[in-house]
């Protein structure tokens, strides 16, 4: 902590401003900071933060260069203060004229500035990270609460000392912390979606709130009287809590207002509402500001400037003004009363004239009209699903919402929805290569198995390559689990991924993709040579540390939730990003990998789910994507994204060596033909043995039922006409009959013919020699056909002989 003042002695010059009286859009003032460089070119510096004072007479704004501006609405003046570095948080000191707290990014200090002179009257030091939140207590004016993501500090300004320090751990960092309006409690929301409340005087925890059905809590806000609190997050839902009973009193579904997620909320106080604020400002995930009436649950208006989308917004303490910081860096300052009044005149009145009998509000009428026009709805969806907007949402929240993930993936991959072309592939049936796919995978769900077979068959019918790639079932299986409710979307998503993210994978098919593995190795060598040396010492190749996780689409090394988050980022970036993910995974897991001493241990490591920090994992991949030198960057060798063509058929997949694949297919068909021929011979033999066994069994049954020796002698004499040996017992007779029966079936075409013993023996010998004679040449199709006819004739003659006997 430091006390003192710093002032350069220069007099601060003030400039006049003009405020619009009754603008149609409600913007009374627009701020932008444009400077000229040494070459005379104009350059715009973006504003980053802004805050109103309690009397809403002054506004403080800072830009990305650390310039701090003060706007006075009473005197209609503005001036620039001395630059003290880039600011991370701002807040006016209540009940003190011209005092402003500025959190500096340099050393994370808190400076108390005089807004008239720019002097620093007090500096507080003690934070270890950038300060993001500043709050003052209204009951104890000397108590100041400041917080970063990692810690919160309660200061006693009278003695400039720390009164209380709250430290957090990874995974439960602070999203927002503040005093309640009455000052009795401290309320904080954390990244693990919990809200914690402490008493201000004792700093004891009094309540913990875990809202059900609300993920990724981003913001909490109180009414002016402090009796109600609203909680908002990525899920399109608002939860209102009563601070008197500590219970949820209302839940508002935002999907009916076309709000898919919430970045920030704030109450807009109105005159004569007694502090029970009814109007809530909501900054949605598509960077549009919505004003919602909580009593009637009607949407008052939507604010979306044409020049740029909204990045942040701030409401003055009494609700007279609010401002929006745009993505391009400008600041629009609105008069809230004019915005609400103009919205009633422009939106509600025309709707009442066109629909005089309509009792619903203007917003619902507009939605009904939009739904009636299908093309208009599709255009709005395309605008909302713009890849740039989706990527901003992804970078802010880290993942896409589960409920809309399939729709977002469809938009990112630009799937054409070719129903006719897909139906033609499905009508070809199950591909022979995947007919018995269940023998390779243990899949308990018959629905999942059916969808997997259908997807693989469609891919194989689309391109012969996908009928011979052994890794393909494991690669597509996680996508089947996620998108199996929409088979058409599933096929088109996987096909698009194979065309883009899997570029150069099949360049040497069915051999490993040498060029892809070389790219990964080069990037790894640039960013972590020590890890690559460790692999080289053990003899570990890129086929182990890269190809294994690529061929399973990372599904073996990540949990289901982690896998979904990863592919959100892969599909939102250029095709080369997937190779950076492989390098990032190896480097993030470096400490665990370097403890492994054998190739088998490392190979097993890349087939197991290992704990990983997803934020660090993805962040490193982005760093590699941007900081890898152009000489080794995979972007040089990858083509830009190409979607499937819309029409009656899909374009051909040509990124593979056709001659190699055709040769492999021909060999597999040759094996199948030879297997079928061998199977036919075996089936013939088995059918003949079955006839023999039935005859022997029948003999046993007849002999047990009837002990008449004449009947048995008659049966034996029938099959043993010229034999001179008389059998002595039943077992010997059975074995002899079986032996004679086998000879007659295998080597005689007609058992009823009366031929001499010599003729039968010569015929048997000749046929036996022919059957065991080695075949030097492969039989022609005509010979195979004649063989099949001969077998059929043999089986028919055997059946005729049985009936004649």
Automatic annotation (TrEMBL):
An example GO CC term for this entry is:
ciliary basal body
What is known about what this protein does? Molecular adapter which is involved in cilium biogenesis. Part of a functional complex including OFD1 a centriolar protein involved in cilium assembly. Could regulate the cAMP-dependent phosphorylation of OFD1, and its subsequent ubiquitination by PJA2 which ultimately leads to its proteasomal degradation.
Q: Where in the cell is it found?
A: Cytoplasm, Cytoskeleton, Cilium basal body; Cytoplasm, Cytoskeleton, Microtubule organizing center, Centrosome, Centriolar satellite
Task: Output the PROSITE patterns linked to this UniProt entry.
Answer: TBC_RABGAP
| Keyword presence, Cytoplasm | yes
Q: Where is the composition biased (Basic and acidic residues)?
A: 781-795
Q: What name does this protein carry?
A: TBC1 domain family member 31
Region: Disordered; residue ranges are 765-805
